[in-house]
Amino acid sequence: MKEAPQLHQKKVLVLGLAKSGFTAARILNKLGAFVTVNDSKPFEENPEAQELLNMGITVICGRHPEDLLEEGFELVVKNPGIPYSNVLIQAAITKGIPVWTEIELAYLISEAPFIGITGSNGKTTTTTLLFHMLNQDKKHPLIAGNIGTVASGVAEKAKTKNIIVTELSSFQLKGTVAFRPDIAIITNLYEAHLDYHGSVEDYRASKMKLTENQTAEDYFIYNADQSILVEHAKNCKAQLVPFTLKGRTAESSSADDKWVYWQGEKLIERSKIVLAGQHNLENILAATAATMIQGGTKETIIRVLTSFTGVKHRSQFIVEWHGRKFYNDSKATNALATKSALEAFPENIILLAGGLERNHSLEELRPFMNRVKVLVTFGETAQRMTEFASECGVESIEQAGKMDDAVEKAINHSASGDTILLSPACASWDQYDSFEIRGDAFITAVQKMTEANE
Questions:
Q1: Where is it mostly found (predicted)?
Q2: What are the beta bridge partners of residue 313?
Q3: How confident is the model at residue 340 (pLDDT cuts 50, 70, 90)?
Q4: Residue 31 in contact with residue 7, Cβ under 8 Å?
Q5: Domain locations in the chain as residue ranges
Q6: How much is the CA Rg of the chain, to the nearest whole Å?
């Protein structure tokens, strides 16, 4: 870990704990900063705060005092989930106090270079694919960021031989200043998280910060099928590595209906790739380009693409049973994500969908509902899903309770050759504490019912 002398004896407020705040506070304390932690959870219910207090760190819990910034802080490191509309964050900005996320701290202390991966969709799959490719090629990758491993904690232990493959959200990138990845990847860009960012312009600007500090020594891998990214690339100082799904090119990675190519040469037939879906091709092309830039081999890429079944809860293949294939896409918490899943399968889909009612539009799904043979719907949105599917011409619709009931109904309406797909298009919180728990419930139900009927 680098010493980061610019943080020594600096008075720092860490706002919000969870994993990232706890790790940032511990590292800042180790670097010699004067750290105060402020978290809304009461101290007696807050084991992270208790542990930090035992390290000698000042801890304020249970509330966010509005006069806290009067104590002369020189830096705020905030949990990415805390919006910029927060009173303390607004006060810090007004006072000219820098506001970081722990990604900036990770960059300052890391001995290893970074590959930064962002986009509206596909970040996790691209990050995981790339990690597997580099790992099999013995490039000593470490995985970090929004994928669940705190980047500053990974950077603390990283050595110069490593490369940190980092999934980054717009929330995390907005709080960076000097962060500069050797390789930046933007998979795609759509409208998202406007409740947090306030405008599509702020959301896009936050994403584009990924390339802001890159130089001619670095690489920018981007989706050349999106005009907004093509325009952004014109102002980027890094070496440009575009990828496209619109046919073979000699520039980088590309794909047509039958093949994936690297610099115009055939790499792998699409029919041999285990990971399903047109949307996943973007992730494959991005990961392929980064692997080749890092000196990886085509043989390794092919080996990974013929074995990688997907990230858990993201179009994850579960099992084939009596000619039926089961996929867990519980991470699809909005219509756009479910649209991508439906695009992956041309016909005979038995779709399990529904969940928390947020009154989001379902119109993204309409062009693909003719692929749905049966809809099994559940949760608060069940009735609206039923009405929408009926409008779209889906003839067989079932309403279910929780996941066991939904899977049972799906199996009862299925036949050999069908795809049984959990892709809810809704958040999980009406019935499950997280999309992960919902996805696990689906996997358990599928395993129980298929094993019982062998």
A1: cytoplasm
A2: none
A3: confident
A4: yes
A5: 9-100, 104-305, 316-452
A6: 23
Give the integer Cα–Cα distance in Å for 201 and 294.
Answer: 32
Query: Which residues are annotated as part of the binding site for ATP?
Result: 119-125
Q: What is the DSSP letter of 445?
A: H
Q: For the chain, how many residues are written?
A: 454
Q: What φ, ψ does residue 292 adopt, rounded to 5°? A: -65, -40
Per-residue pLDDT tens over the stretch 48-82: 999 999 999 999 999 989 899 999 999 999 999 89
Between 278-293 and 298-305, two packed helices, what is the crossing angle to 10 degrees? 150
Predicted confidence (pLDDT) per residue in 420-452, tens digit: 999 999 999 999 999 999 999 999 999 999 987
SS3 234: coil
Site of tokens 């038995």: 350
| CATH code of domain 316-452 | 3.90.190.20
Q: Which CATH fold topology does 9-100 show?
A: Rossmann fold (3.40.50)
Per-residue pLDDT tens over the stretch 197-238: 989 999 999 999 999 999 999 999 999 999 999 999 999 999
Catalogue the E-assigned strands of 53-195. 58-61, 75-78, 99-100, 114-118, 141-145, 163-167, 183-186
CATH assignment of 104-305? 3.40.1190.10
Binding residues: 119-125
Single out the residue of 368, 369, 438, 361 nearest to residue 407, CA to CA.
Answer: 438
